[in-house]
Each structure stands twice: as C-alpha cells, then as structure tokens.
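I would like you to sit down with the pair of lines that follows and say whether tokens and residues agree.
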Amino acid sequence: MPSNSTFDENRWVIQISKNLEEELEDDTQNPVNIFNVPKTLMALDPDIYVPQQIAFGPYHCFRPELFDMERYKIAAAKRTQRNLLTLTFQQLVDQFLDHEPRIRSCYHKYLNYSGQTLSWMMALDASFLLEFLQVYAVKEGGLLRRSVTSRTSHLVDISGKKSIHNAILRDIVKLENQIPLFLLRKMLEFQFSTLDLADDMLLSMLMGIYKEISPFKLKQDLPNFQVATVDHVLGFLYQMIVPRLQSPDIMEVEDQIFEEGEETLEDLSYGKQFLKETCKFLLKMNKGPVRSFKKLIAKPIKVAVKLPWKIISNVPGIKIFVRPLELCFSQDKEDVKPEDGGSSSRNNIDRPPLVEEISIPSVTELSKAGVCFLPANGDDSTISFDPKKCAMYLPLISLDLNSEVVLRNLVAYEACYASGPLVFSRYTELMNGIIDTSEDAELLREKGIISNRLKSDEEVANLWNGMNKCIRLTKVPCLDKVIEDVNKYYNGRWHVKIKKFMKHYVFGSWQFLTLLAAIFLLGLTTLEAFCSVYRCSHLVYDIKDRV
C-alpha cells in the first residue's frame, strides 16, 4: 500500500494528538472487531483471506490489482446520491467524518489515512456494498430489485451464476475486507423515511446473503438480535452459524467421585485387573465342574491379587506379556489422552488440547465398527453420539466453491475475536479428524450429511484436511464428550483390540517376535532331545501301523 510504504510522521503526530483530545463515551462500546488474519493462517493459503476482486475498507484499498474496481464504486456512489432524501453525498461523507474515531476503533491495525480520505473511502465502499447486497433483500417473499445499470450488470448478478459475482461474494466475507456495519445502516437511514425501515431492509440483505453463502441449513429458531449490535457482514454470519453456549455448559466438567479407600480400575495394575476380571467371569458360572474348579483356584487367585504386580510387571521376561494385557484393559486411554486428559479435572479445563488434529477414527473406520452416521437438524450444538444406537449425529452442511472461504474466515475471525472456547474451530477440527479420504466424504454424502456441489468427493476431503492448522484450540465439553464416547466405543470393539495387538506386538514388536522365535527354537531343541532318547521314528511307524 503506498500510504504505508511512505510513512507520514507529521500525519501520525496529528492523528495521535487528535485521538487523545477526542473523548469517547466508553472505550468498551467500541471494541476492535476487524482484524488482520494471523500469520500462521495466512501462510497456508493467502488467497483465501486476501481479496481477489474488490477491496472494502482500508487494509487493501490501494492495491494496484484491485484499483480497477474503483470506477464501479464511483458509479454506485452516483446512484446512491440520487436516492438520498435529505442531504447530498458530500454531506453524507461529512456525517461519516463525524464518526471517524469510532471507525478507527473498529480496526486492529493503525490506519495511516487522513479523516477525509477514510470517510470518502468508507462512503464509496458502502455505496457499492449496498448495491451488491440489494439482490438479496427479501421483501414480501420476493427479491427487492432496484435498477441495475448495464455497466454493472455483469458484476451484480441476480441469479448469482456468474463467476465474478461469486468472486465478489467471497471477498465480502473475508476478515480483512470488512467495513463497520453501522456505516451501511447510516447510509440506508438517509434513503428511507424511518430508521426502522432502514434496519428492516439491512436485515433482509444480511439474511439473504446468509442463505446464499452459508454452508449450514437455516435455523428454525433464529437468534433474536438487533442490526445495531452487528459489527460487520462476517460477524453476522458468525452469530447466525455458531451456537451461543452458556458458560456453565462450556466450563462444567463432571468429576468422578469414588468412595474413600476404593481402588478405581485405572489405579489397579494390569495384572490385578486381569485377575479381577477372571474372578468376575468365574462368579457368573456356578454349575458342574466349574464349582469344584473355583474351590481349587480360589486361594491361589487371592494370593496372586495381593502380589506386588507393579514390581513384578517390570521384570524383563514378564514385562513383554504385560503390554498385551495393558492394551486389552486400557481401552481408549492412550487414544483419547489428548482429548480427555484435560476434561477429567477442573484444573485442566482451560488448557488447550495436546494435539492440533483430533484423535478420532475416520468415518470409514467407524462405519466398519458399526457406527451409523445420521443428519441432525441444527448447528454444532446438535452433534452427539448415542452408544445404544451406535449412531453419531452431525449437522447438515452444503459445500460449494464459496464454502472454503467462508469456513476459513469464520475460523480466523473466531480466533481473533472470541474470548471463550473456540466452538467453530473445534467443529472444523472434528470434521478434519473424521474425514481423511474421499471414501469418508462419500459415506457422509450418502448419509445426507454433506451436500456436495464441488467437483468430487476428493475435493471435499481436501477442504477439511486443509483445516488442520489452528491458532489455538480450547476444550468445548459438549464436543469433547462426543469424541470421548466415540473413542470409547470404537476402542472397546474386540476386532479393534485384536488389530492393535497384531500391529503393536506381532508386526511392530521385534521383542515379541524374538520371544516367539526363542520359544519355537526351544521347542525344537526339546523335541530333538526327546527324539534322540526315545527314537521318534519308531513311534511314528507304530502310529501308522495302528492307523
């Protein structure tokens, strides 16, 4: 940007002095809400966050490749001037100039522009943005259409099928390309007889663009809020898409309380767990020879339980056999450790997860384990897992060429703006965790959870797998509980345990294979010694003669 490359020290001093003299009513009424995208996200794919067709606001205003669109902004300003009821466009700019401190307070970055430049910039941008949004203004069940000139007809497409229309639509929802919504509201105020009519029109525009670009189904119970409380277009989308969880629901963690002196299953060594499970199994069987067998082994088992298994398990020869028992009885502790390590204690609830990608099996793996995926009507708060029905419920989502820009910029906005748990980021991490390949995306599409308007299921998988880089992750118990339950169910399946056992201790453990080889060689040596004494060849011939 030219204004930033040649820093004007005098203007900076004048601006700082002016800001110090200005007395805002309350700093908390003007929080920063338009941010620079964090560098860790920007580095992944800059085109997702940087406007490609048109710039709104001061961050990208004078980029040479976007400056050609200024003529369309001027044309929109001329048409806005004709629609103003009580003042001229110059007077409208003066109105914006009166709100200069409030405009500057919305932006995280220092704006090296004079008040006049900033006011004209905002007036031109607001004029074009309102003209573009008019195609989404819903009135009496239809679209409110103002006359679109032939000069801008290729930009403002009523049907939304033209590529340049979608390019502008994507630029409108990018975090660094936002302008304060109160400026659009003020501009509409001078075009309608009352402020209420202006608010209704602006709300209709916002609802229209939400229906057009949101990947999620429109909620039945829409949140009740005033247009005056909305920061910008992206902020409106965030409020509509992301559920507002109550603080107790977010931070509350169930503490498992055990009786004093009682040993939990996790406190027991794996040897004791094996013996206790054996006792439970024998107690259920009390017929025939089992009763005599129980009397025979009852005392040895009681003695075995009291043995120092933690010390015994560290003996080199026995230690090899302890790990398979550990695998069988640990269930999902290792796999869910990143997820529930902080959710089992109130002291750890504020700590971020240990890994960026959620430790959860993919859709294909869960489907083979008997999990059924069903669509849920609602937002992220409707995600759940029913262990009785073996069903996982996920909200409906429709993906098209605009969806990735919307999802990524919502994640960036939440990372910069949200003070509590990052609910939407956690949802994207969940989807990234369960969708690894095109087969996973295909299964969710067949179940009606994903509506795919992209070219292939491979693009859907790439979309979610590209979202594995986040600024930070917070624990959201409503989602963490789902992940914990899914992992517990999946890791409790015997075929999963056997698969892990074979992977770790047969194919992946040279110690175990060495032990098996040693036992096999010992058996052959024993057999050879036995045959050298008793002449096994004669025994084989005797068996053949008898047969």
Observations:
- Strands lie at 138-139, 142-143, 372-376, 384-386, 391-395, 397-399, 450-452.
- The two ends are 97 Å apart (CA to CA).
- The chain has a mean pLDDT of 77.
